[in-house]
Amino acid sequence: MPTATSFLSVRFGPLDFSMSAPMIVAVIACFAFPPCLAIVARVPSLHGRRGLQFAIAAGVTSAGWTAATVATGEPALTAGDVAVGAMLLISGLILYLELWALLSRGYSLGIILTLLRAPAPLDDVAIARGYRAGDGLSWIMRHRLAGLEAAGLVTARDGVIGLTPWLGAPIARIYVAAVALLGLPRSG
Asked: Residue 75, exposed/middle/buried by CB under 10 A (0-12, 13-18, 19+)?
């Protein structure tokens, strides 16, 4: 039987797919996120700041979900309904984050794009030279190091790179312990 807060009730035999207002609004918000991100990505002051673009779009979408949930005026709204709606929204945003990360930082996809732009098949040296519209494969290292430095994990001075003792070293130790604990293959 649908709960008192069900806006939508769909049953298939013993399965009940009832959804409350926060759940329905979360699904709608998940569909609204890509256009929101597309708009935020075109703000000139945010050009090249993809992480911030994603965070702003996620914040706007979350605020929209909150406002729309409250605006439904559902009197019998329960904490459980709100929690499930929030979990749906967060799950959708995590899915988009994974897809966005693949599209914005997918190095294998970058190689495929290099090959697509080439007039003929390339050898590995030509792929390395043509990667990222001519930036080359060294771009990956520069890009990764810039991100690590911006996060405070490493310092770079006069071509020498080291872990920061207050953040980089502890995170590296946690990583080593997690790999050992979970029995994962070593990377790097």
From this structure: exposed
Asked whether 166 and 157 are in contact (CB, 8 A), the reply is no
**In angstroms, rounded to a whole number, what is the distance separating the alpha carbons of residues 59 and 64?**
8
Both tokens of 75, joined, read 């009197």
pLDDT of residue 12 exceeding 50, the answer is yes
**Cβ-based neighbours of 52, under 8 Å, separated by 6 or more:** 46
How many other C-beta atoms can be found within 10 angstroms of the C-beta atom of residue 99?
Answer: 12
Measured distance CA(24)–CA(104) in Å, rounded: 29
pTM: 0.67
